[in-house]
Amino acid sequence: xxxxxxxxxxxxxxxxxxxxxxxxxxxxxxxxxxxxxxxxxxxxxxxxxxxxxxxxxxxxxxxxxxxxxxxxxxxxxxxxxxxxxxxxxxxxxxxx
Amino acid sequence: xxxxxxxxxxxxxxxxxxxxxxxxxxxxxxxxxxxxxxxxxxxxxxxxxxxxxxxxxxxxxxxxxxxxxxxxxxxxxxxxxxxxxxxxxxxxxxxxxxxxxxxxxxxxxxxxxxxxxxxxxxxxxxxxxxxxxxxxxxxxxxxxxxxxxxxxxxxxxxxxxxxxxxxxxxxxxxxxxxxxxxxxxxxxxxxxxxxxxxxxxxxxxxxxxx
Lengths: 96, 210
Description:
The structure holds 2 protein chains of 2 kinds. Chain A is mainly alpha-helical. Chain A has helices at 8-30, 35-56, 64-90.
């Protein structure tokens, strides 16, 4: 017997988790922590995204192939971020 | 479980294979959506790292309260959509349509709050190309922030409007027992709706919080 989707109670738990993370990220932003604040905000955003993808979007219960397709889009996005920023950040390093 | 899931099309061996292909195709589409929004996020990354002070100053002009409320609204709509998919799988027609309706109402509330924010921005002369006036220094950099803000939240809102139009049709079809035989369209739409939620999960901290 295969489970392609979670039970209803799981959805409510995930929803509660998402709201807790939202409150956390807003409260943290009130302290204006600078770089640490940015890192925390992005970490919480990634955690929220993973919760939504794993449970609301059923990835935790999906086949490996589906998980690969889902991951591929984000992997390529990461490549774009890294290569573009590697260019912009390193431009100042080269002399005139 | 699987035998009850929909009519088998002739080009599939089993229903399991058909469902798998459905989900896979939808994720392939969502991967293109990731890259569509991805270039915009890359733009944000480049300019945010180039002009951090201006972006922070510009960000203070957005309403964190309304942004937070909208996040709650959208997360709740994701919950109701997940419940709609769950009800569809359990062949609970009334519950499915009810949850779809709740999702639609929450989506409309989100767009309403977004529109009220846009209107405040208009009153405060923060719309580039229309009436942008900046009191502080580095007006051009602040203008860049608001250009990205309107393009990215605008495309996000457009995705929601398209989603709401599809959802309205699906509610009528669902009410007429259209998904008794095959619930996959409901599941596919759920993936789309959650994806729109995902985009907002990143837009919110980037524009409102940091």
